[in-house]
Amino acid sequence: MQIFRHIAQKSVEKSDYASYAQALLGVSYITIRYIEKEEGTFMLPEAVKTYIHTHRQEAVDTLSKLIGFPSVATPQPQDGFPYGKPAAEALDFMLEQLSALGMTCTNYDYHMGAADWDDTLPPHLGILCHLDVVPVVQANWTSDPFTAEIRNDRIYGRGAIDDKGPAVAVLYALCAIKAAGIPLRKNVRFLLGCNEENGSTDLAYYLAHAAMPPQVFTPDGSYPIIHLEKGMLRLEFTKQTADPIVRFSAGTAPNAVPADASVSLSAAFCGAAKQGSQITCQGNKLAYKGVAAHASTPESGDNAITGLLTYLGSDAAFADCKALAQLFPHGCTDGSGLGIACADTESGALTCICSMLHVENGMLTGCVDIRFPVCTTKEAVLEQVQAAFAAKGFRCEARIQSDPHHTPKDTPFVQDLLAVYEEQTGTKGECIAIGGGTYVHDIAGGVAFGMEYPDWDYHMHGDDEFLPLEQLEENTCMMAAAILRICGE
After folding, report:
1. Which of 200, 329, 413, 422 is 20 to 30 Å from 212 by CA-CA measure?
2. CATH of the domain at 149
C-alpha cells in the first residue's frame, strides 16, 4: 500500500485520490476505491453520491407514484390477482423501472417480483422489500394516505417508511451504480413482495419456485442492524356471546395497536365507569379513542379495545367483555393477564396485545399478537394462552407461529453491513434485538438493515406515516454503499 503512504505524506484529500493516483501510477479510480476497501476505509464513490443527490427529486416523484397505489393486500385473491389489483399494479410499476434500468425481471405470478443485475451469474446478495401496506383509517390522517404530500421536507403517505420508501431507495441506489459505470462481480437480486404485512405467503410462493441468495438483507427495520427477532404467535379467539352487543368494531390490522373502538348496544349501559376524554357516548353507541402503535412496541400506544372492554366490563351484563378485560388488562402489554409474561437479557420482554375485536350477530371474534423472547417456545406460550382462554369459555386457535430469528453478530455479512453503517453515518454500529418480525424472519442468515434511524418515530403503521426527504437520499447512499461493498469488484 505504498500509494496510501505517499498520499498521506502529501496530505491529499480523499476526493483527489483518483487524480493523484493516476498521476503517480496511472491507477484507475475503481482500483483506488477497492484499495481503500482493503484498508478498511472504503468510501462511496463521488459519482454515485452525485447521481443520488441530483436525482433526489426524481426519487421523490417515484415514491409519490408508488404511494398512490392503495396496496393493502387482500386476504383472498381478488380481480385475478393473489393480493388484489393495487398490489399487482405497484409491483408492475416497480418492475417497469427496473427493467428500464437493464435488469432482468421475473414476476412470480404477482406474489413477488425479482430483478437481477446480471442473470448470467448466480444471485449472491438479495435485497428484500415489500410493496403491500397496512390498512388506514383515512379520517385520522391530515392528508389522503394514498396521495403523497410534501410538508416540512417530509413525504407523507402510507408506505413512506414501510416499505415503499426503502424500495425506492434501493431502486435509485442501483440506478446510481449503473450510471456511474461501476461493474459488480457478484449478482444482486432485488426482491419485491406483496404480502409481508399479513403472513408473508408471497415469500413462501417465491421459495417454492426459486432459491434465496446466500446473503439477504431487508431495509424493513431499523439501523444499525437487527440480527435477532422475537418469535411470533398470531391467534384468533371466538365465542358466541350473550353480552348485549349489536356490533363491536375495532382494529384493522393484526399487528397494530388499534386507535379506535366502537360498540352499539342492544340495551342501556348501566356500568359504574365514568366517561372521560377517551370515552364518548351517544345513546347506545360508545367509542374509545386511543393511540395507534406497532405490535412490537405496544407500550407506545393506547389500546382502544382494552380501554373500551374495561369500560363495558363495569356493567354486570357484559360478562364476556369483563373476562376479556381480565385477560388483557388495559395498559398491560407483557401478557400477564394470560400468564405468559417472561423476558431475557438478549431479546427482551414478551409483548402481547389484542389487536382486533369484532362482534356481529352474537359471534365475538378477536385477534392476539404475541412476540416472545428466546427464553421460551411457541409451544409453551400457545399452551398457556389456550388454557387461559378456555377457562373463560373462549376458543383460541393459532393462525401464525414462528420461532425467534437469530443471525450471529460475527458473520462476515453482518460485519460488512456494520462497516457500511459506520462509514456512512460516522457513528458506531451495533447489532440489536427487536420484537417486530421483519421480512427476513424466516430466512437463514438474513438481517434487517435500515431504514429507520435510532430515536426517530416515523408513525409506521400509524396515522400520518412519513419519511424525511433528506433521509431518503441518505438511505439511497447507504443502499448503494452496501451493494458495492458486498458485490463490487
Report:
1. 422
2. 3.40.630.10
